[in-house]
Amino acid sequence: MNKKQLIKALSSYQLWLIAGLIIIILIGVGAAYIMLKQSQSSSIPSSTQTTSSSVSTTTSPQYSFLVFTQKGIAEIINPSSTTPFQGYTHSINISTNVPQQVYWWVEYPFENAAQSRYYLIPVNNGTVYAIDANSLKIVKEFNFGNSIGFIGVAYSPSQQLVAVADGPSGILALINVSSLNVLWEQHFVSPVNGRTYYPCDVRWSPDGNYLIVPMRFNNSVDLIALNGSLIKVLPTAAGSQPYMVSPNMQGTMIAVEYVGNNSVGFYSLPSLKLLGILQMPNGTIPQRGVFTPNGDYYLEAPSNANQVFVISTSTFQIVKTIDLPTFSVKGLADIELMPGGQYAYVVIHGNVQSGGIIALISVSSLTVSSYVPLSTAPAVIIPVQNQVATYLVDNVLLPPVTGLHC
C-alpha cells in the first residue's frame, strides 16, 4: 500500500469513527430524554392516574360489615383491608334448615351506618332477635311466625322504629327500637281461604311517614300508615307476584320486582302511577334492587345470575350490565347502598359449603370496586362505622383463625 492509499484508508477510518461517536452521542441524548420524560410523568400523574389514586385513597369505604352467617357466626369484615376478617364470635344460628336456601334482609337508611342500641336480626323461622350492639348478646326474642320463608326488617330514617315483614305468616309489625315494644302487628290473610298475602318485603318512604309493602299472593303493593291503617293499594296483574320494592331517595318513585312475570315496574310516589316497566333479559329473575342516590339509575340484582343490571330511570331500559365475580352458586341475595351512597354492596349468600361473597360496586363508575369471598354463607349484613368495628374486635370478638369462620 503506497502513502496515498494509506492516507485515504486512515481518512475513511476516521470518518467511520466520527460517525460512530455521533451515533453513540445521539443514542445517549435520546435515552436521557426518555428517562427524563418518564421521571416527569411519574412525579406528575396524568388525570387518569389522579382519578385512580383518589378512588383508592380518599373514597375507599370508611365502614366495615357486621356479618351474621347462616351457621351462627358473627364477624367483622373490613372490605378496604388486605386482611378483611377482623374477628368473630358465635351468636345465633340464622338458618334453622341448613342447607336449604332462604333469604333475609336488614335494611338501614343509607345516609348513616347502624346507630341503634339494638340490632334486630331476622331468622328464617319467623323469629326476630334483638341483639345488644355493644355485646352482641341476645336480649329479646320476637316470634312472628313458625314457617320457613322470606323475612326481613327495615329501620326507619331516624332508626327509632323497625318494620318487620314475615311472608309465611302474613305478619307486618312495627317495633320501637328503644323500648323493644311491638307497637302494632297485623296479619294479612285472605278472608276467603285464609291464605297468607305473603308480605315479602317492607320499605320506608324516605320521609319516614309510611311503609311500602308488596303483598305477593294478593298481587298488590300497599302503602301503610305508621298506625297500621291502609293508605293506598296498587293492584297489579293477576299472577304478577310483586316480590320486593325499593323507593328512590327523593321519595318520588318506587321500583317493584315481579317474579310472576319476571319484570320490574316503576311507579310514582305516592300516587302509584305506572311510569315504565322492564322485562328481564335471558330468563333472569328480578329479586332486589336499589336506586343510585341521584335517582338516575336502578341497580337490579337477579336471583339466578351473578350480574347487576343498570336500568335508566328515564328510559326504563338496561344501559349496562355489571359482571360480578364468578361463583359456583349463581344468584344474588341482596343489594343495598353503603352509608354515604358512594358504594352499593351486593350479597351472594351461596351456601354453607361453598361460602358466599360480598361485592362493592362504585356508584360513580358503575363497576365492581372490590369483593370479599366468605368461607360460609352470609345471612344478614349490617354496615357499621370503623370505630364501632374496632370496639367490637377489641372487646367482644376473637381474632380470626383459619377454619373457624364456618
UniProtKB/TrEMBL annotation:
Coiled-coil ranges from the UniProt annotation: none
Keyword Cytoplasm listed: no
Domain of life: Archaea
UniProt keyword list: Membrane, Transmembrane, Transmembrane helix
Membrane-traversing stretches: 12-36
Protein name: YncE family protein
Organism this protein belongs to: Saccharolobus islandicus (strain M.14.25 / Kamchatka #1)
